[in-house]
Amino acid sequence: MNVSCTKQAGFYELPGAVPLLGLRCRLIALSDQITPCLQFQAVTKMALINIKESSSIADYTACIVSSRNEADLAVCIVDSRATAKGKDGLWCYMESASTATSKLCWVKSRGVADLLVCMVTSRAEAGWRRDHKLKGKL
Question: What is the pLDDT of residues 62-78, one digit of tens each?
Answer without folding.
Answer: 999 999 899 999 999 99
